[in-house]
Amino acid sequence: MPNFEEVSKSNLGTSFKAKGKLVKSPAAGQPFDLKIDDPEQHSIKIVGTCPGDQYPLAKKKMTPEYLREIAHLRPRTNLISAVSRVRNNLSYATHKFF
C-alpha cells in the first residue's frame, strides 16, 4: 500500500474511504474483514481527520463545569442525554395525563 505511513499514523476519529475485498473473518466476534492486499485494485484514502485539540470530548469523566465551556458538545455526553430522556418521558406523561 503506497500510503501506509500516512494511514498508520492516523488517530481516533479519522474517516477513511476503503476499497478492498470482503472475506470471512477467522476471528470470533465479527463476521467479516476487509482485505486490502492488491495495490492495483485496492486502496485506502483518508477523507478527514479529527484533531484532538479541536474536538475536546475524550473517553474520560468530565465535570458539568467543564462542559459548560463547550455547550455545543454537551448533548453527546451520557449525563446530558440521560437527563434529556428522563425529561422527555416526564413531559410526555404529563401531557397524556392532562
Structure notes:
This protein has 98 residues and is of the alpha+beta class. It has two domains: 1-55, no CATH class; 56-98, no CATH class. The protein is built from three helices and four strands, in the order H-E-E-E-E-H-H. The strands form two sheets. A two-stranded antiparallel sheet has the order 1-4. The protein has a two-stranded antiparallel sheet with strand order 2-3.
How are the elements arranged and paired?
Layout: H1 4-8, E1 15-19, E2 21-24, E3 32-35, E4 43-48, H2 64-67, H3 78-97
Antiparallel strand pairs: 1-4, 2-3
The helix content is 25-40%
Fraction in beta strands = 15-25%
Shape: elongated
Number of strands: 4
Unreliable segments of 5+ consecutive residues: none
Structural class: alpha+beta
* Rg over C-alpha atoms, rounded to the nearest angstrom: 21 Å
Which H/E pattern describes the elements?
HEEEEHH
Mean pLDDT: 83
End-to-end Cα distance, whole Å, is 64 Å
- Main sheet attributes: strand count, strand direction, barrel closure: 2 strands, antiparallel
**How many structural domains are formed by the residues?**
2
Query: Which strands sit side by side, in order, in the main sheet?
Result: 1-4
| H/I helix tally | 3
